[in-house]
TrEMBL record:
It is an enzyme of class 2 (transferase). It comes from Cyprinodon variegatus. Residues 91-206 form the Phospholipid/glycerol acyltransferase domain. This is 1-acyl-sn-glycerol-3-phosphate acyltransferase. The lineage of its organism: Eukaryota, Metazoa, Chordata, Craniata, Vertebrata. PANTHER family: 1-ACYL-SN-GLYCEROL-3-PHOSPHATE ACYLTRANSFERASE.
Length: 271
């Protein structure tokens, strides 16, 4: 073929490759949301038949229905530290939060009678919002700290009255900067108010397979490390800051240990 014709083809090829991986990124994200919406639609009547309304037991339905989703995306989830979840009674799980994909890891290890704290906007997310409400998810308004605090104080009582475990994302928002954000205090006040242990859980960095800015979503491995529980018996609100600092430092060490050293999106945060 004439070299003049080869040139545009050679230029077109990387463009096609780029668009195809970008296309795949959007397609996979769209499929993820659509599939979760559909699963939730199917799960809602199951929840209603099982428990007749809002009940933490409905989390079992979500857990069972979400487990296969990782296979669509070629994701392996490797869990270590199972023994640290074998604690009787209520506790607070804290974990880092990178993306809505965290739900896949959560559902691999979610203990019985465990629900979560989420931003109130999630309740409006169609069928997903409804199934979250049915599963006892506690919604907080992050813009109104005083409201969020009183909802969490109520949650501390409910945890004890109904023997419920709560999963909180202490970074308070999604974060994929290759490090942990500083922690908000809610999870630690909650654990101290209820006098229950904290079980830290760390998700390895998704930057090796999922890059939001670069529009990359490949297959890969998520390592989930469950750390030993931290007791809060006898602690008061005075101890919350040091409890938060200790948890942050333990989780950050584990995060760096289990995450592949790959080029980071924005570079690690300095603390
Ligand atoms: C069938 C198939 C279905 C398919 C679909 C399935 C779908 C889903 C399945 C379920 C899974 C759902 C997963 C959902 C994930 C959603 C995750 C999120 O939404 S993350 C965002 C929401 N979560 C959080 O924000 C929690 C963490 N935030 C906090 O803890 C914050 O502290 C706060 C929101 C309570 C307050 O915010 P802010 O004011 O910015 O925070 P601080 O700086 O920490 O606090 C200011 C001062 O207030 C004190 N404080 C904080 N909390 C309390 C408290 N509870 N009691 C008393 N005092 C409190 C704090 O100490 C600070 O004071 P200081 O003097 O500076 O110490
Ligand atoms: C306004 C609607 C809220 C968005 C939800 C979109 C629809 C989601 C549908 C299917 C996805 C599967 C389950 C996802 C559940 C997890 C939701 C989530 O991860 O919310 C983000 C929140 O933790 C932090 O939000 P910001 O990073 O502060 O923003």
């Amino acid at each position: 073929m004439d070299v003049v014709w080869m040139l545009p083809l050679l230029l077109l090829f990387p463009l096609l490759m780029w668009t195809s991986s970008t296309f795949l990124f959007y397609f996979k994200k769209f499929f993820y949301v659509a599939w979760m919406m559909l699963l939730a639609l199917l799960g809602i009547p199951v929840c209603l038949l099982k428990s007749g309304g809002r009940d933490v037991e409905n989390m079992r339905v979500i857990r069972a229905m979400v487990r296969h989703v990782k296979y669509f995306f070629g994701l392996r989830i490797e869990v270590s530290g199972w023994e640290h979840l074998q604690t009787v009674g209520p506790y607070v799980i804290i974990s880092n939060h990178q993306s809505s994909l965290d739900v896949l890891g959560m559902m691999e290890i979610l203990p019985d009678r465990c629900t979560t704290i989420a931003k109130k906007e999630l309740v409006y997310a169609g069928t997903v919002g409804l199934i979250c409400w049915l599963s006892g998810i506690v919604f907080i308004n992050r813009k109104k700290t005083s409201d969020a605090k009183s909802v969490m104080a109520d949650a501390a009582k409910t945890m004890l009255d109904q023997q419920i475990r709560l999963w909180v994302f202490p970074e308070g928002t999604r974060n994929q900067n290759g490090d942990l954000l500083p922690f908000k205090k809610g999870a630690f006040h909650l654990a101290v108010q209820a006098q229950v242990p904290i079980v830290p859980v760390v998700f390895s960095s998704y930057n090796s397979f999922y890059l939001r800015k670069e529009k990359q979503f490949n297959s890969g491995t998520i390592k989930l490390k469950i750390l030993p529980k931290i007791e809060t018996k006898g602690m008061t609100s005075e101890d919350v800051s040091s409890l938060s600092d200790l948890s942050h430092s333990l989780m950050r060490t584990a995060f760096l240990e289990i995450s592949d050293s790959v080029p980071q999106s924005n570079g690690p945060l300095k603390h």
